[in-house]
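Worked example

This section walks through a single chain of length 672. The input is the sequence exactly as stored; nothing has been trimmed or padded.
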Amino acid sequence: MFVHKNKPQILIDQKTIKEMEYSGKLRGALIAFGDNEALHVPTIFNPNLTQPVPEWNYIELLYFDDENKKVSVKRSLPWLKDDWKFIKEWKMMDYIHFDDKLYLLIKRSIWNEKTKNVTQEISIIRLCLDKGSELISSAVEIRYNRPEFQTNQITGAIFIYLPFYKPVKILLLITKEASNKSLIHTRYFIDHFASLFDKTGKECASGANKYTLMRYHLRSEVRSCQKTTYKNCFSNENTVPSVELNFDGIWPYHFIFADGRSIHPPLEYDYNHSLNQTHFCHQISDWEQTCIEIYKNFNNDSSIQNVEVFFIEYPMNRFWLRYNSLRFSEGRRCFQQNNTYLTCYKNDGYEQFIDDMQLHWYSNHRPLGHFQVTNNTNKIIIKILSDFCGKLKSCTHCLMHGVIEDCIWSNSRCKKDIKSVKQTVDYCFKIARISPLMFNSSSPETLTIELDKPLDLDETQEYLDIKTGPHNHCTNIKPNHNGSIFNCSMQLSESGKFKIIFSLQNDRYADAISISALSTEKVDIAAPEDDYLPTLIVLFLGLLFISLIVYLSFKKQQSKDPKKDSTRKVRKFSDSKEKQGSAEAITAVTRVEAQIISSAMKTTKDSTIQKEPSSKLIKSRSSMPSVSKQLDVSKSKNSSCSLKSTKDQKSTKIDVKTMRSKSLPVVVKSKR
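Given that input, the structure is written out below as tokens.
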């Protein structure tokens, strides 16, 4: 899937190109992620402040559905319903990403209705990549407003990232066009770059005065943030913390080139210079200066269409500037390393494509380099970065960072070898000795590992991972003074006999691989068994407590029932002609309890027992099965309406006594 002429398209089976369905319009920058997602920062140009249809989002996360051939907005930073009255321009100029953060460089122009002025400013918005699809909810911005931004039009703005500094230096290179059409290149320095965004989020959450929300600022509303709990990399929808800051340094820069190779001051330093009609000179030390004969002065020449920058951290530690001209030979390619000058070269060697080059460079991952593409013939012009392996000075770094580029450590140096087999286990270092060889809950938890050679850990952010088996990890790893012996605390989770795996890893760089050593001896682990007794005791006591509460509640409710209520219910029950048979049954039970068998049971009232029982009686039977059974027995024995026989009376008495013994609790309750 890709975007061509602002339309999403899909290439099927490397043969057929079809357009994808999308309700909006892709105008502006796109940053591709994994999982069919891309970040879209629309370019908004609304000089007359007219209402657009459809309305824009400031930032949106798009999902490219390859099955249904549709593109949808998954998440967005929407503008308020009438923001079109205030936003004249919104455009992403550049972006960088390092660690797990993405930084968007935005140029925008805001109309202030109260002052009747337009403010042109620079905004940097940070997004946290580890939030996945919710990265827009992590947005925080810092912004800059300078007097020269109001008197000149900003035509270009890029990040300059100097990876050879610890911590890295970050500055902005901003190009402005003056009223006389001349170009002004200025470097704007930002110290402690990464920490500024966390500070902005914290201060906004505390309700500090000069901190506000982006939506308030865009509408020129003077309002502070509401106090809330600060959560790193998280904010609610459309509540982007915002603050205006000052640059830590502002220095001009002169892009004036010779016909061939040109030497320029490092981008991070200030410099003294002199300029006349033919030569440009700058001081390279207290006693020396260098001069070039002017071939192109890009401060006065508008033939440069754009400036692009590329950075590569360890091991190259350099950056590249690309000045792209409508004519290929008039462009420049520049690079700078640590403690060197910015060196620029004229684009040459491809004169046959001089008028056919695209005005963009692209990074090539493997082999490492940059390339351009011709407009009409789609021919690739690539610049390969040579001697990548030679920059890696140790075995560990040669393998960790160089295997992707076919580097191999041999004869104490790192070199390129495409045919060699890359081994990453027991190659740079091996485990010579481990102790102890047995761990249980009563033994000391410290594991000692001795390597066959010292391990050189520098500032390239490697870390150690030590474990035995899949779940027994060693924490609190501490090396000795020369890096050959390591002690750590073994966390016992799984029993068994396992080898020690000693790994060196680096998560900062995507291409870095893990290298490791495997012990020849096994460690016997006896992990403590899980003890469920405390849990069972707590569970039992909890159930006992709940049962006690239920029992006490039942007894309390029972004690509140007055005797007269039961009597009233029985009387009411007996007064009904329809339920007279049921009343007779209850009367019979009462007589049974007194062991008196009245001959009145021979009367015609016996017929009422055969009537359809009422609903209350059904309920009574359901709770007194023995009573219903004995009533049925009594009814069957009295079918002749005679109880004179002594045998029959004894039989009846036996049945009645049985009924009494089984139903006594219920009968007593009925009498109450």
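What to look for: The chain has a mean pLDDT of 79.
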